[in-house]
Write a structure and sequence with these properties.
There is one protein chain. This protein has two domains: about 160 residues, Bordetella uptake gene, domain 1 (D-Maltodextrin-Binding Protein, domain 2, 3-Layer(aba) Sandwich), CATH 3.40.190; about 100 residues, D-Maltodextrin-Binding Protein, domain 2, CATH 3.40.190.10. Helix content is about 45%, strand content about 20%. It has eleven helices and eleven strands. The chain is globular.
């Protein structure tokens, strides 16, 4: 009596296996068509460079075209909104940067999406530390001396940023609040002119991403006093961190990472995470990023999302204290 029962079970199991395989075969694999990566900046900038390098790697890995679409405007809100409203199928992604987590602090009443909850974090791909650079006209050659000079002339020393509410502005104000110092904020409409005016002596200093000032520092046209990162940068090994210089815990890394619309299938997120890990491990990619003042970084999914959430809350608090409003 046991043999027929066993045969029935085997037949049933076989049929179930065939049905499952058939059902799986009917599920389209990702990607089965071109993938679009949206960037909220113009072509040629650091975010765009990271996006295009990753797009090329993703295309080679999955065997599909990957298109980078530049959608600048409204401090990256246009790009973020386009991705937040896209179908969550893995075919529209956002290459975001640190300023993405500043949207709730500055534009929460204007945007139609939640900068944190409307997206599924995939992975960070690169990081560029913020570095305090000073004009050659500034006599201080280290952070402690510079801080003493600022302390002796409160509100007289200047720092330039790419604009009110920019990442450079937030980084600067975080430093001033941690140290109790007072400096004069000079907002510009972009980073390039800030660097030019610091070199020319019209500005005393700037908290800039390393990628935007590395050539000038290496050429001796700017003095780098400290790096706002947990450890020294391999690109400026002789420049200490803020913690080493006495401002413990100050960090202002600029990250570049991949986000997908919330609801994107876990299988797609898993595939993207795997490709992102391979991307940051490639020596050629590492060399390319370092040439731009960046280092590869691979923080994924919940950890990445947790970092974004904490950053957003910190920026909201700081914006309220500064009474910042989007222009």
């Amino acid at each position: 009596m046991k043999t027929p029962h066993l045969s029935v079970c085997l037949v049933a199991a076989s049929l179930l296996s065939i049905a499952s395989a058939t059902a799986w075969a009917q599920v389209p694999t990702w990607p089965s068509k071109p993938v679009r990566i949206v960037v909220g900046f113009s072509a040629g900038g650091p975010t765009d460079v990271v996006a295009r390098a990753f797009a090329e790697h993703l295309s080679r890995t999955v065997g599909q075209s990957v298109i980078v679409e530049n959608k600048p405007g409204a401090n990256t809100i246009l790009a973020a909104e386009a991705v937040a409203s896209a179908p969550p199928d893995g075919y529209t992604l956002l290459l975001a940067a640190t300023n993405h987590t500043m949207i709730p602090a500055l534009y929460s009443a204007r945007v139609k999406f939640d900068a944190i909850r409307s997206f599924a974090p995939v992975c960070t791909l690169a990081v560029s530390p913020t570095v305090l650079v000073t004009s050659p006209a500034v006599t201080a050659k280290n952070l402690s001396t510079f801080m003493q000079q600022v302390r002796e002339a409160p509100g007289k020393r200047s720092y330039g940023t790419p604009g009110t509410g920019s990442s450079g502005h937030f980084a600067s104000e975080q430093f001033l609040r941690m140290t109790g110092l007072s400096m004069n904020h000079i907002p510009y409409k972009g980073a390039a002119q800030v660097v030019t005016d610091v070199m020319g002596g019209q500005l005393d200093s700037s908290f800039a991403t390393l990628g935007s000032v590395l050539p000038q520092v290496q050429a001796g046209k700017l003095n780098a006093l400290a790096v706002a990162a947990p450890r020294r940068s391999a690109l400026l090994p002789n420049v200490p961190t803020f913690t080493e210089s006495g401002v413990k815990g100050y960090s202002a890394d600029a990250w570049y990472g991949l986000l997908a619309p919330v609801g994107t299938p876990i299988a797609v997120l898993n595939a993207l995470e795997k490709v992102a890990g391979q991307f940051t491990d490639q020596p050629a990619i590492v060399a390319k990023l370092q040439g731009l003042g960046m280092e590869p970084q691979h923080i994924c999914r919940d950890a990445f999302g947790g970092d974004m959430d904490r950053d957003a809350k910190a920026y909201i608090k700081l914006a309220r204290e500064l009474e910042l409003k989007a222009e």
